[in-house]
Amino acid sequence: MGKPKKFNDQPFAYHAEIELEIATLTNLGSGLGRVALPGEPEAKWVVMVPFTLPGERVRARVFRNHKNFSEADLVSVVTPSPDRIAPGCPLFGRCGGCQYQHLAYAEQLRWKQRQVAELLQHMAGVDFAVSPTVPSPRDYAYRSKITPHFSPPREGREMPIGFLRQGTRFDLIDVPRCPIATDAINTRLAEVRAAVQAKRDTYARGATLLLREASGEVTTDYDAVVTETVGDLKLHFLARDFFQNNPFILPAFTDYVRTQAAATGARFLVDAYCGSGLFALAAAPAFERVVGVEISESSVRFARENAAANRIANATFLAADAAEIFAGLDFPPADTVVIIDPPRKGCDEIFLRQLFAFGPRAVVYVSCDPATQMRDLRHFLAAGYALMAAQPFDLFPQTRHLECVLTLVRAGS
């Protein structure tokens, strides 16, 4: 690839090679080091280099300069970290799906714990003892859903079926097998890839494929109803619907959320982003009454069916308008705990305003993006809630992603 037309050549020319020591990992999974610019006595200029580890000395090739940092590709590792290991996938470093396959799993857990603590400090202004990251029972072959893509076929060219190439927004890399996906999904992936390639001349446009495993079966039908088992629960939902994609850690994950919610002493529970009922139904035995609230009517329908199928009589589910999430609730706020598990973007202002107006005794905040979670935490602290526990869970081994559970209790509760 040639030099970009609008490349900013300060402080480095395009593809200039530099040598530096990596000091830390960012929450995006890249190594971060600093170099001294010409005429400066100290190494202050930040350089981000993916697939490097703290303590390593590396050679890197600059491909982008920003206002206060540069990005570079790894050329070679001059001095490797003792925690560097051989990646489990031959595509690691080229496929954009994983960031940490070169890092020993115990160290992945430690860094994720540290990153939560740093985000708490830098984004919420809170120094807090974050609990050690709960590991996944499997660090490979754990994903129960993947969505490979393909672009419109071009005559005379191969048609990759896979995921985005590292560092690109549109370029796909061919992925015949994904080691973090379950064995059953990889077996079916080979069949699906062959079927797509056999019909490549019939595609006028690209598409996103779906492979989801549940109860030992793999479906590629977006509208199929699948069943996932979590502890004693059997939950039904559409294959295309959101559901956590690491079933092996879900029993421990849901048990922790239930335990934290029950430990607040509340008698009533509201699950404010309930989906098909995972947290609400897992926690229901610990409460007198449970209400799940969701704006998706189809998800509420599945939640109600799941409550009936699991013989849980104290949980009801409501399809609520986003502007009236807590309207009609008859739970006394001082005796109520709320579980929230918002999308990656976090909670919007309208939801937070409603939540604080309701004023529950406590909130258990589950997030797949600790950065937006810590942004929201500032609002909870300003509204009179105190942070009682911060617990990371590694639902996504080999990647930078994690789930974090914050327990927040209202002052005076």
Structure description:
This protein is α+β, with helices and mostly antiparallel strands and 413 residues long. The chain has three domains: 1-84, Nucleic acid-binding proteins (OB fold (Dihydrolipoamide Acetyltransferase, E2P)); 107-138 and 248-410, Rossmann fold, CATH 3.40.50.150; 145-226, no CATH class. 22% of the residues lie in helices and 28% in strands. It has seven helices and 21 strands. The chain has helices at 105-124, 183-198, 250-263, 278-283, 297-309, 349-358, 370-382; strands spanning 17-25, 31-35, 45-49, 57-65, 69-79, 145-146, 149-150, 161-164, 172-174, 207-208, 211-214, 217-219, 225-230, 233-238, 268-271, 289-294, 315-319, 336-340, 362-367, 385-393, 403-410. It has a seven-stranded mixed β-sheet, with helices on both faces. Strand 4 (57-65) and strand 5 (69-79) form a beta hairpin. Helix 1 (105-124) runs parallel beside helix 7. The longest helix has 20 residues, at 105-124. It is globular and about 65 Å long. 39% of the residues are buried. The model has no long low-confidence stretch (mean pLDDT 95).
Mean pLDDT: 95
State the shape: globular
How many strand segments?
21
Question: Element order, helices and strands?
Answer: EEEEEHEEEEHEEEEEHEHEHEEHEHEE
CATH topology group of the largest domain: Rossmann fold
How many separate helices?
7
Give the CATH level 1 class of the largest domain.
Answer: Alpha Beta
Helix content: 10-25%
- What radius of gyration results from the CA coordinates? 23 Å
Second CATH tier, the architecture of the largest domain: 3-Layer(aba) Sandwich
Structural class: alpha+beta
Strand order of the largest sheet: 17-16-15-18-19-21-20
Low-confidence parts: none
Main sheet makeup: 7 strands, mixed
Count up the domains: 3
Distance between the termini: 60 Å
Strand content: 25-35%
Name given to the CATH homologous superfamily of the largest domain: Vaccinia Virus protein VP39
